[in-house]
Amino acid sequence: MRKRKSNYRKASKKTRRMIRWSVVGVVVLALLLFWGLFYITEVEVVGNTRYTEKEVENMALEGFFAHNSVLLSTFQGHINLDDIPFMESVDVEYLNRNKIRLHVNEKQPIGYVRQEDMDYYFDKDGLVLESLSAAESQSTDDSNSPAAGPAGEDGQAESGGAMSGSKTDTTAFRPALTDVPLITGLNYESVAVGEILPVEDPSVFNTILALTRMIDKYEIQPDSVEFARNQSMTLNYGQVRISLGTDSYLEEKMTRVAAILPKLSGMSGVLHLEDFTDDTQNIIFDQD
């Protein structure tokens, strides 16, 4: 009788142990199935102008959730990246079990000023967003723009399988800033990141914003934009200077600049648009 009870206890323990291991096995199998079923193999990036698709992917996709589309979009759907120059955040959109879309939110500089070998980038309100050494700014001009990045023509970046889970080195990224003009001639006593650039007339920022929009529209990026005290502007293109005057008739002036500038290639002198009006027929170029 005792022997029969002892055998029963041994059988019961063995059965419970088998059940426990079976449950563990089922859970592990379910986790592996869930992980493999929703493993990210394709990443689409939209809204990026400063960094390539691959760079954005490397910035945003790190840590435990980075490989799983459901976990990432559910628990890490908004990724703060304000420790990276000109980046604010990335929002994750679930597309299908193996594909996500990253929506990039960037800081928007409209120009920069140079002081003591440092370049200070400011937005449309004059808020100084970031500072880079002049050498760093130059290196960004020589780097690839997002349009020349590894993504295909459809704007998608292939993740190529596993993604690194290690902490991103934010200093490894170089933003493309070739579309942000150097602004000279502004009068201010000091400049600091996170503060408004203390110029004499804050309306100058509206002028710079309007000007940069025209520059982007016609794809005629100057070497620099020089302001005088009366807010008259001069655009510098190598040895060619465009005297725009104030921001009156700015769109009409920039339309003329876009048409005339290619004809001035290799020349040196001043194109006069400071007195331009609706009645202007002839535009004078004073050759050096």
TrEMBL record:
<keyword id="KW-0132">Cell division</keyword>
<keyword id="KW-0472">Membrane</keyword>
<keyword id="KW-1003">Cell membrane</keyword>
<feature type="transmembrane region" description="Helical">
    <location>
        <begin position="21"/>
        <end position="40"/>
    </location>
</feature>
<keyword id="KW-1133">Transmembrane helix</keyword>
<dbReference type="GO" id="GO:0005886">
    <property type="term" value="C:plasma membrane"/>
</dbReference>
<dbReference type="GO" id="GO:0051301">
    <property type="term" value="P:cell division"/>
</dbReference>
<keyword id="KW-0812">Transmembrane</keyword>
<feature type="region of interest" description="Disordered">
    <location>
        <begin position="134"/>
        <end position="169"/>
    </location>
</feature>
<feature type="compositionally biased region" description="Polar residues">
    <location>
        <begin position="134"/>
        <end position="146"/>
    </location>
</feature>
<keyword id="KW-0131">Cell cycle</keyword>
<protein>
    <recommendedName>
        <fullName>Cell division protein FtsQ</fullName>
    </recommendedName>
</protein>
<dbReference type="InterPro" id="IPR050487">
    <property type="entry name" value="FtsQ_DivIB"/>
</dbReference>
